[in-house]
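From the methods appendix. Each design record in this collection lists the tokenized structure first, followed by the designed amino acid sequence. Records were kept in a plain field format so they could be parsed without special tools. The example shown here is representative of the layout used throughout.

RECORD:
FOLD TOKENS (317 positions):
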């Protein structure tokens, strides 16, 4: 299976946001494990498709991937050290005020020369002294993989900043994939005793094998039996806060959507929550006995019904 998100979704790098969303919806339905029970590879494809969509659906995250700042998992790529590339390249000419000769001809260390460039520029701008910079340290970027339910409900997670420095990161309810958190003072130490920079943490929300998210709404496909569809009844339905009882009205069909109000993702600013949308899917029993087959055979003879008649007529018009 390819790892490039564009290849996974089957779109080009110039695809519009609408084309990416359309491709995701088509592939998510065709590979969702609940809709493809006999396909052992469906779950892996569904996770790959969801991860690819999560990476490309946000314009900012997509731009960072296209520019090579993050990889196909959303993890940060090591930053290029352009200053060192410059300093260690002997073909670069060094020109200070009134000096057009190259110091490399004297056998000087390129790193020392570049440091001198920084000192001269800093002194001219008033931001550098012989004792060090007065600016704060630079920001450090990290990527944190967040389980779906942690993002939806909120949680405390641990993140390693390297060199044994672990910190606690608070994930607010309703955290979005691609969202960046800023932790003040957790970045690189500032030179010359100046304040440290910040830690910028980009969240990568993992897909869930049961729940899907559309804004603040949670989407679930709920299997029901034939008798539950015909006779109705109460069934248990999963939500992000735990199972609840759901009433199935008699005569339910696959594809019917039931709404559980307030069972979606919390909206702290609006003091509320989204809804959960439950799509019913009728599932036949794995084995049928002769009594059921005989009953349905007699019922078919006495109750002719073609649910596709209208569809075929509309397709022909």
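DESIGN:
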């Amino acid at each position: 299976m390819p790892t490039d998100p564009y290849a996974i979704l089957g779109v080009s790098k110039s695809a519009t946001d609408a084309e990416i969303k359309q491709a995701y919806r088509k592939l998510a339905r065709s590979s969702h494990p609940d809709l493809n029970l006999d396909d052992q590879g469906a779950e892996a494809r569904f996770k790959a498709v969801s991860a690819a969509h999560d990476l490309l659906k946000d314009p900012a995250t997509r731009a960072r991937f296209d520019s090579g700042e993050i990889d196909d998992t959303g993890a940060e790529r090591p930053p290029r050290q352009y200053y060192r590339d410059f300093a260690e390249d002997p073909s670069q000419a060094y020109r200070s005020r009134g000096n057009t000769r190259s110091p490399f001809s004297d056998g000087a260390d390129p790193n020392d020369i570049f440091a001198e460039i920084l000192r001269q520029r800093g002194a001219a701008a008033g931001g550098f002294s012989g004792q060090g910079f007065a600016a704060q340290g630079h920001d450090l970027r990290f990527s944190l993989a967040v389980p779906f339910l942690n993002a939806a409900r909120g949680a405390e997670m641990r993140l390693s900043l390297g060199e044994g420095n672990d910190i606690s990161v608070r994930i607010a309810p309703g955290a979005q994939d691609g969202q960046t958190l800023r932790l003040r003072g957790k970045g690189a130490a500032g030179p010359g005793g100046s304040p440290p920079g910040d830690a910028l943490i980009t969240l990568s929300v993992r897909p869930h094998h049961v729940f899907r998210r559309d804004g603040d709404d949670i989407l679930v496909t709920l299997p029901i039996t034939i008798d539950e569809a015909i006779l109705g009844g109460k069934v248990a339905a999963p939500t992000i806060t735990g199972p609840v009882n759901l009433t199935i009205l008699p005569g339910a069909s696959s594809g019917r959507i039931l709404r559980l109000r307030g069972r979606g993702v919390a909206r702290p600013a609006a003091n509320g929550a989204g809804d959960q949308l439950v799509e019913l899917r009728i599932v036949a029993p794995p084995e049928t006995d002769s009594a059921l087959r005989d009953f349905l055979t007699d019922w078919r003879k006495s109750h002719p019904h073609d649910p596709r008649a209208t569809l075929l007529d509309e397709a022909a018009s």
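APPENDIX NOTE: The CA atoms of residues 10 and 23 lie 7 Å apart.
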